Amino acid sequence: MRAFIAGVAGPALSDEERAFLRDAEPWGLILFQRNVTVPESLKRLIGEARTVLGREAPVLIDQEGGRVQRLRPPHWPVYPPGAVFGAIYDRDRQRALTAARLGARLIAADLTALGIDVNCAPIADVPVAGADPVVGDRAYGNEPGKVAAIALAIAQGLSEGGVLPVLKHLPGHGRATADSHARLPVVNTDRITLENTDFAAFRPLAALPLGMTAHVVFTAIDPIAPATISPIIVRDVIRDSIGFQGLLMSDDISMGALEGSIAERSSAAITAGCDLVLHCNGDMAEMDSVAGNTPVLAGEAARRAAAALAAKRPADPIDVVAGRNEFLKLVAGAWQPPQSSA
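and the corresponding C-alpha cells:
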C-alpha cells in the first residue's frame, strides 16, 4: 500500500482507474457526490474498487450533515448541520449529546449499508467573529469544551455503528479568514490564545484513530507553511500540544490553499509528518503524481494505520426507524428535515 487516499471520477470505474488502483495501491478511496447515483450503483463501485485492490480497503466519505453531506435525498435522509446540536446544548446539554450521538449512529447505518467504513467527521473547529463561513454552521459552537463534548458524542455514535471517525481540521480551521478550497488562510492570533481555544477543543479528542490537517498558516508558530506541510505544527502542535497520536492525513492536497505542483505538495505533506496524502478530485494525471511522490506505507505510519483499522468495531444493533423517530424528537424545535427528504 502507498501512503495516499484516492478519489475516482464518476459512478463507475474506468479501465484506466482500475489499472491505476491495481498498480498504485492507495491505502483507501474517498467518495464524493460525483460518485453517487443510486445505492446499488454506489455499492457496486465500492465492491469493484476493493476487488481491484485485493483487500477491504477503507472507503471514506464526508457525511457531516447540513452543507457537507455527499449522500442526499431521495435515497438518503438529510441531517442537520452541527450548529443545531450546539443550539440544543445551550438549553439542555444531555439532550444535545444524546441527539449528536444518535444522529451519528444513524449516519453510520446509512454508510455501512453501502460498504463505507470511514466518515470524515467530527469537526472540532472553533469559529470566531469575522471568520470565513466555510466552517460556519458546520461548527458545534464557539467554546472549546462544548465543541469537544459534541464532537466526542458524534465520534462515539459513528464508532458504535461500525464507522471510523476522522477528526478535522487539526489544529483548527475556525479562525480562517479564507476558504482553503480557494486560497490560503493566514491566522495571526498569538499562541497562548490558540492553545486556550482552537487547540483546546482538540485535546479531549486526541485518542480518536484518524485525523485530518488544516491548510491554514498560524504565523505565531510557523509564519510560512500551512499546518499540512509544516513539520513544526505537525510535531509541536498536533502531536505534542494536542497529543493526537492517530493516523494523520492531509486535507485534500489539490485545494487552492497550497502552492507548487501536486508532486511537491505530496512530498511536503509526507515530509512534514502526515501519514497519508488525501487527493480528492479524481484527476488521473494528478493521481499519478501523488502516487509517484508518496512512499509505501511503512514504519510508524504503517503502525498508526494498522491501529486505526483495528479500532473499527462491529456495529451495535439498531432499529433505524425507531432511531430516526427518536432523533427527530430530540432535535424538534431546533431543526426539522425538509419535506422532500427521505
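(Above: one complete record from the training split.) The two ends are 38 Å apart (CA to CA).
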